[in-house]
Write a structure and sequence with these properties.
single chain; mainly alpha; 16 helices; membrane; transmembrane; transmembrane helix; PrsW; PrsW family intramembrane metalloprotease
């Protein structure tokens, strides 16, 4: 972290980052300026849709990063690198690599495999250099492997959304008019269908390797560089798998359903691998912060159940859900403030020892008093499992058939919360999950309906 702007200005990496960002913006304007001028309406729609899409991803990544949140300016730097530096240079790098492939292989090979070779090779290296730049800008902010995952995800997200916008412009250009239909179709395909296992995931994996190399100084250089290169290789392999024409014969014979099946299998392999690794990365960070809290043996600071509730976004959410059912949004906010204070105390104790404890104790005491005022003594994540919760969860998927079924999960939610409050008991959190899923499915149904309308009129 820089203590002031003047200190930042004396750091060469800052000016190097600024210069590369400006150059990237200029390259993109030169490349896509004419397309934007020809279809300004489509460009605006693409920016709006993929900005909203990116905001959802930012929320998810921030939830992963909740225990030890990173500075927002570094997130912005990561987004800028991915969106402007990496994407702009990838345009030229992909063109150069394709010219090499044309010279050393056949045209049919280039037609089938160029995307699977060019994209992973150029783009993953360029995005990973962005994670290295984050290390150069703020080395002290890399405190766990999960930090590398988060910064890598932001670099990948910036690249992903700019690429989505450029693909939208290309689709409009292919249509030949300033039509909004190709933009909506691109959003459905690249945003909704492929967005969960795209560049955000690839770069998050590469970021884990960079963070490992930075943190584990007790290991040999061979080990650290090997892990970093291995993570980059895994990111490359994921990207290659997604871009490759694997199972092309199945898609040719089975038509649209075959294509969707192959895409789903590829995507789930990529996403499943990432989620397994993410579980261990999050567990490692949680254990590093739970230790200081457990060592205090002070339930006023944090009970055992409250420490367990800090483990992940689901357990934190369940503790807040219990508070909401008990005392409404006021209690929800108080428990959230307590969790934030406990996490901040744990981070400061890990980094600064007793001085960190003393600095954060007043914040925690205020949060604890606030929770006590609403009648909550132990902000735990314990929850019941009910038949109503499972029924509501199943009914949420009926919204994919017809959005009118949205009223069923919402009705179960209202009934479950009212019943729990009247009996002073806990409510099944699946009621909340089902209602959220139903709203998401209703939105997806609406977007697909708009896409069909814009396509077929």
């Amino acid at each position: 972290m820089f203590p002031s702007w003047s200190a930042a200005a004396r750091w060469p990496a800052v000016w190097f980052f600024i210069a590369l960002s400006i150059a990237g913006i200029v390259i993109l304007i030169n490349a896509f300026g004419p397309a934007i001028a020809d279809a300004p309406g489509a460009f605006v729609l693409a920016v709006v849709l993929f900005t909203i899409h990116g905001a959802v991803f930012v929320t998810i990544i921030r939830a992963v990063d909740w225990l030890e949140p990173e500075p927002r300016w570094l997130f912005a730097a990561a987004l800028i690198w991915g969106g402007f530096v990496a994407s702009a240079n990838a345009l030229r790098a992909n063109t150069a690599l394709e010219s090499i492939l044309v010279k050393v292989t056949s045209l049919s090979f280039v037609r089938d495999w160029a995307a699977a070779i060019e994209g992973p090779t150029d783009e993953e290296i360029l995005k990973t250099l962005g994670i290295v730049m984050i290390v150069l800008l703020a080395r002290k902010q890399i405190n766990s492997v999960l930090d590398g995952v988060v910064y890598g995800a932001f670099v990948g997200l910036g690249f992903q959304e700019i690429e989505n916008i450029t693909y939208s412009l290309n689709a409009v250009a292919a249509a030949g008019t300033d039509s909004l239909g190709p933009v909506v179709q691109t959003f459905v395909v690249r945003g909704l269908l492929a967005g969960l296992w795209s560049h955000t995931v690839y770069s998050a994996i590469a970021g884990a390797g960079v963070a490992y190399a930075v943190l584990h100084r007790e290991r040999s250089w061979f080990n650290r560089i090997g892990v970093a290169l291995g993570a980059l290789a895994l990111a490359w392999l994921m990207h290659f798998l997604w871009n490759s024409p694997a199972a092309a014969s199945l898609t040719d014979s089975a038509g649209t359903y075959g294509i969707l099946l192959v895409l789903l299998i590829k995507g789930l392999l990529i996403l499943g691998t990432f989620l397994i690794l993410l579980h261990f990365f999050r567990k490692d960070e949680y254990e590093g912060l739970a230790g200081p809290l457990e060592s205090l043996h002070n339930p006023w600071i944090a009970t055992h159940n409250e420490i367990a509730a800090l483990r992940g976004w689901r357990s934190r959410g369940r503790a807040r859900w219990n508070a909401y059912v008990y005392g409404g949004m006021r209690a929800y906010g108080r428990v959230r403030a307590l969790q934030r204070a406990q996490a901040d105390l744990a981070v400061d104790m890990r980094d600064n020892g007793e001085a960190g404890y003393a600095a954060r104790l007043p914040q925690l005491q205020r949060a604890r008093y606030g929770v006590a005022q609403v009648g909550i003594g132990d902000a735990d994540a314990l929850h019941p499992t009910t038949i109503a919760g499972w029924i509501s969860f199943v009914l949420a998927f009926a919204v994919l058939i017809n959005p009118i079924f949205l009223i069923l999960p919402l009705g179960f939610l209202v009934w479950g919360v009212a019943r729990a409050r009247s009996t002073r008991q806990r409510a099944d959190p699946r009621l909340r999950t089902a209602a959220v899923l139903a709203l998401i499915f209703a939105l997806a149904y609406l977007v697909s309906a708009v896409a069909r309308y814009t396509t077929f009129g």
